[in-house]
């Protein structure tokens, strides 16, 4: 279209023509009638599928480890205190006044069962008798009340609020080469990367030069590749056009530069 103006076969070029320094050397431009910038078009971020261990999300890994250690410590405390407290030794045969042996309810298995019942807010048929075991039980009950209340409140939030996830969230993810990306072979977008002094854009330009297969002949070709996990760089106005018509696509991050569309005319 610019060739038509340069050769005098047209007076004006009214289209999505970006104002660049190179183009201003051969044609004149009107004031910008629309501002825009280079951005990324990629597939719409998808919601995470519920994993098997989603129920562990409300607490961090460190909290789960400490909770497990606390569980073992309290269970072991019941076992030791049960052995040391005379009140916890019972006569297994009430009819015999002086039995030859006594039994203790806080065996290893029963201690673990009592601690588990309290943790799951279900209780147990066991009843601590000694002051020491009752004190430990009271502390453990209060602790589990706080932990269970916090867990259930956070679990509801984790299950109802699902944050969409995307492989890329900014231009830095493209620089890290997390996905394949490219731009139109010839145009203002490609020219921007070729002339940029930003280290990130220099690296991206080197990537595109080393992988010409990711460069396209048209914007439409680039948009069609996006469904296959490809990220395409083009002007934000074109991205808005395509994302409004294709719900599975979205604009990623902010614009990389600022420029405008102008009406091209013969140089005076």
**What spatial order of strands do you see in the largest sheet?**
9-10-4-11
State the name of the first-level CATH class of the largest domain. Alpha Beta
Order of helices and strands: HEHEEEEHEEHHEHEHHHEHEEE
In CATH, the topology of the largest domain is named: D-Maltodextrin-Binding Protein, domain 2
Q: Give the radius of gyration.
A: 35 Å
Overall mean pLDDT stands at 85
- Strand elements, count: 13
Helix content: 40-55%
Query: Which structural class fits the helix and strand makeup?
Result: alpha+beta
Total domain count: 2
The largest pleated sheet is described as: 4 strands, mixed
Question: How many angstroms does the end-to-end distance come to?
Answer: 18 Å
Question: In a few lines, what is going on in this structure?
Answer:
This protein is α+β, with helices and mostly antiparallel strands and 268 residues long. It has 10 helices and 13 strands.
What's the helix and strand layout?
Elements: H1 2-6, E1 12-13, H2 21-24, E2 27-29, E3 34-36, E4 38-43, E5 46-47, H3 61-84, E6 89-90, E7 103-104, H4 108-119, H5 131-160, E8 164-165, H6 171-175, E9 181-183, H7 188-195, H8 199-210, H9 219-226, E10 231-235, H10 236-245, E11 249-252, E12 259-261, E13 264-266
Parallel strand pairs: 9-10
Antiparallel strand pairs: 1-13, 2-13, 3-12, 4-10, 4-11, 5-8, 6-7
What do these coordinates show?
- The protein is an alpha+beta fold and 268 residues long.
- It has two domains: 2-48 and 165-266, D-Maltodextrin-Binding Protein, domain 2 (3-Layer(aba) Sandwich); 54-160, Helix Hairpins (Orthogonal Bundle), CATH 1.10.287.
- It is built from ten helices and 13 strands.
- It has helices at residues 2-6, 21-24, 61-84, 108-119, 131-160, 171-175, 188-195, 199-210, 219-226, 236-245; strands at 12-13, 27-29, 34-36, 38-43, 46-47, 89-90, 103-104, 164-165, 181-183, 231-235, 249-252, 259-261, 264-266.
- The strands form five sheets. The protein has a four-stranded mixed β-sheet with strand order 9-10-4-11. Strands 1-13-2 form a three-stranded antiparallel β-sheet. Strands 3-12 form a two-stranded antiparallel ribbon.
- Helix 3 (61-84) packs across helix 4, helix 3 (61-84) packs antiparallel against helix 5 (131-160) and helix 7 (188-195) crosses helix 8 (199-210).
- The longest helix is centred in the middle third of the chain and has 30 residues, at 131-160.
- The chain is rod-shaped, with a radius of gyration of 35 Å.
- It is found in: Postsynaptic cell membrane.
- This is Glutamate receptor, ionotropic kainate 2.
- Keywords: Cell membrane, Glycoprotein, Ion channel, Ion transport, Ligand-gated ion channel, Membrane, Postsynaptic cell membrane, Receptor, Synapse, Transmembrane, Transmembrane helix, Transport.
- The record marks 168 as: Crucial to convey clamshell closure to channel opening.
């Amino acid at each position: 279209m610019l060739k038509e103006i340069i050769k005098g076969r047209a007076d004006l070029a009214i289209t999505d023509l970006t104002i660049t320094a190179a183009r201003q050397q051969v044609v004149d431009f009107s004031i910008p009638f629309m501002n825009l910038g280079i951005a990324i078009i990629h597939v719409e971020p998808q919601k995470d599928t519920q994993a098997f261990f989603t129920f562990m999300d409300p607490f961090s890994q460190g909290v789960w480890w400490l909770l497990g250690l606390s569980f073992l410590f309290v269970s072991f405390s019941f076992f030791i205190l049960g052995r040391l407290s005379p009140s916890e030794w019972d006569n297994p045969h009430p009819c015999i006044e002086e039995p030859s042996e006594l039994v203790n309810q806080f065996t290893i298995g029963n201690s673990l069962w009592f601690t588990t019942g309290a943790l799951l807010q279900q209780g147990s048929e066991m009843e601590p008798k000694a002051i020491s075991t009752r004190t430990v039980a009271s502390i453990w009950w209060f602790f589990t009340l706080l932990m269970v209340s916090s867990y259930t409140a956070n679990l509801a939030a984790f299950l109802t609020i699902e944050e969409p996830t995307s492989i890329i969230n900014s231009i830095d993810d493209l620089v890290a080469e997390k996905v394949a990306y490219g731009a139109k072979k010839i145009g203002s977008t490609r020219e921007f990367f070729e002339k940029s002094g930003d280290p990130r854009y220099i690296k991206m330009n080197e990537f595109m030069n080393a992988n010409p297969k990711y460069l396209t002949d048209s914007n439409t070709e680039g948009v069609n590749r996006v469904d296959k996990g490809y990220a395409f760089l083009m002007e934000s106005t074109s991205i808005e056009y395509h994302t409004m018509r294709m719900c599975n696509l979205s604009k990623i991050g902010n614009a990389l530069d600022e420029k405008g569309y102008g009406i091209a005319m013969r140089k005076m």
